Amino acid sequence: MRKDKISNAVIRRIPRYYRHVDDLYYNGVVRISSSSLGRIMGLTASQIRQDLSCFGEFGQQGYGYNVEKLRSEIAEVLGMNKQYKIIIIGAGNLGRALIQNFYFAKSGFILDAAFDVASDVINTEINGVHVHHIDALEDYVVECKPDVAVLTVPRSVAQKTAERLVGLGVRGLWNFTNIELNIRDANVKIEDVHFADSLLTLSYMIANRDTP
Amino acid sequence: MRKDKISNAVIRRIPRYYRHVDDLYYNGVVRISSSSLGRIMGLTASQIRQDLSCFGEFGQQGYGYNVEKLRSEIAEVLGMNKQYKIIIIGAGNLGRALIQNFYFAKSGFILDAAFDVASDVINTEINGVHVHHIDALEDYVVECKPDVAVLTVPRSVAQKTAERLVGLGVRGLWNFTNIELNIRDANVKIEDVHFADSLLTLSYMIANRDTP
DNA sequence: TAGATTGTTAATCGATTAACAATC
DNA sequence: TAGATTGTTAATCGATTAACAATC
Lengths: 212, 212
Known about the structure:
With 212 residues, chain A is α/β, with parallel strands linked by helices.
């Protein structure tokens, strides 16, 4: 039974389902049962069936799930077919690392442009992506209407830049600055990548292991 | 009442508590009640008191929490005073971005060395961190005993490299490769930073907004 | 002292797991 | 058909919130 309100816990698991099912697909696996997938992912079969049933009926009794179908259903749920346009604000080390190493297309995004203030990178191409001066942002967004912006700017300008982007109609921010952006517009979605939080979680786990 | 088994949900919140309390501290705030902190963080006062009480009694009736004390107590809980030694495996774009931009010391880590295979970076220094050839890893680890390794290597060598590090006695892996490492040793803690999962979550949120 | 606010216990809410009829 | 496995309902478990005595 398709649910209308999907819990956050479920949402956070979907990309992981996709990753595993995608792996199976590329390894030529044709069908999989909730119990085998559970064994692979470390989840109960029950949870997998519950989770998937939030979005539709993707399986078949006595058979399990067809991997190719499941993969494309999950991709659909995740909006991977929408071909969202994405731009990167801040072509420093991290911005460049994403441009050069992260395969946006595999997640269904089209990386269109990057912006910076440093004259030595402006008007260069990084991995085929043009770097514009940040002053050209307004004109660019009006014309190209990107859906999402990656924030890889210094902390000091993060909030201001975020507001500028939201004002221009950007609908999602992928935030790599270690601050929590204050954006009131509930229609703008923000996903934080907090490196420091992640490392501190690891620190906690090591410091509080069972055997020292 | 100090709890022995801390739930994962609580653990994931502690770094965020630290971040906010640290902010307050640097802004000169001396004391804070659970309700004001809740307002800032978007949590209920009740939850904050429950969470903190897992680790000890840090507050005072009628007063609230002393910010400086709370900050140092949370730091202690997180193991930030242990001065764990950390090394970076893979000095490509992402590795370099972390070396140059991420302030390890602020999370209590000492960044000691980096390793790579590319001859043009070996024996250079990035932001004061020496880049060694990966062949020197064994000797280095035996001598310097790093606690944690950052994995910023290509996917193809991720599992093999992880096993090598674990074999040498590394106790934590901060994994930036988009694969799930298979390490059986329960005493080795792994923290994944899955960029793709994060971006797909954002994709989901945008695709399934209330108003399209 | 009176007001404020904690830590903790109890109540509620939500998420996970178990069970099972339906059916491929 | 018989065996396997789904989707869903019910039971359990755990996490969050509310309430309140204790006390600064």
